[in-house]
Write a structure and sequence with these properties.
Blueprint lengths: L11 E4 L6 H11 L3 E2 L1 H8 L5 E7 L5 E12 L19 E10 L8 H14 L4 E9 L3 H9 L3 E12 L2 E11 L9 H17 L8 E2 L4 E2 L18
Parallel strand pairs: 2-10, 5-6, 7-9
Antiparallel strand pairs: 1-3, 3-4, 4-5, 6-8, 7-8
Length: 239
């Protein structure tokens, strides 16, 4: 929903990002973020190849893309916050929705578009029965983004020291989580013991993948499985 107090009142609708948005999506990322993303990342977005996305389009300007959020589903056990869900019995393998990138073009900021995009992500996460939350990283100096996610009722659960390496300097990351399905009943003792035994057994046979810190490499942000995507990590806030 747009902010009714704003004098600028475009007609904005929300839908999945599609192939026709490719060029504009790439350009917005170039304009907003201090790093460049590989072409494969954008192709994955517009083709829904492992990435779930929503776009904000101005219908008065031929459905021009003016904002976006990109996400992916990850297993809780492969995240930095597995311990927060270790005694959950909602599913044997609880999942999380991870926000990759979120941004709104300059002219359309402060209209509530970013909030609406995040609400779409939250609504989607609640439709997944074994999803326990939406989470993301924010660089420690990005106070506007920190304030935004706090306003959206995300919880600051962790500080990851020296998570980012940008232009020769390390920065901490703040990890925010929005919990979903909290209303479900806790585990019974039998369920908890079953989860515990399964966890001990799986740890003997499973090497947990390391979440790699972001490192700058010729300003190209690669998006393979062994790297991290940063969202809204510049000194400005893009929401």
């Amino acid at each position: 929903m747009l902010d009714p107090t704003s004098k600028f009142q475009p007609t904005v609708e929300y839908r999945p990002i599609q192939l026709s948005d490719l060029r504009v999506l790439e350009q917005i990322h170039v304009d907003l973020f201090p790093v460049r993303y590989e072409r494969d990342f954008f192709l994955d977005v517009v083709n829904s190849n492992g990435i779930i996305s929503w776009g904000a389009v101005d219908t008065s300007r031929s459905d021009e893309l003016v904002g976006f959020v990109t996400t992916k589903i990850v297993s809780a056990q492969d995240s930095e916050i597995e311990d927060l869900f270790s005694n959950n019995c909602l599913g044997k393998d609880p999942t999380l929705v991870y926000i990759l990138t979120l941004g709104v073009v300059d002219r359309y900021r402060n209209l509530g578009i970013a909030s609406s995009l995040v609400q779409e992500v939250i609504k989607y996460s609640t439709s997944i029965i074994n999803c326990r939350g939406v989470y993301l990283h924010v660089i420690s100096y990005n106070q506007p983004a920190i304030s935004f996610y706090e306003k959206m009722l995300f919880n600051l659960v962790r500080r990851l020291p020296m998570f980012y390496y940008i232009q020769g300097q390390h920065y901490d990351s703040l990890l925010f989580v929005y919990y979903v399905h909290e209303e479900l009943s806790p585990c019974s003792l039998l369920d908890f013991m079953e989860v515990l035994v399964t966890k001990i057994w799986s740890n003997k046979n499973h090497i947990k993948p390391e979440w790699f810190r972001f490192k700058e490499s010729n300003t190209i942000l690669v998006t393979h499985n062994d790297t991290r995507i940063i969202s809204s990590e510049d000194k400005r806030c893009y929401v």
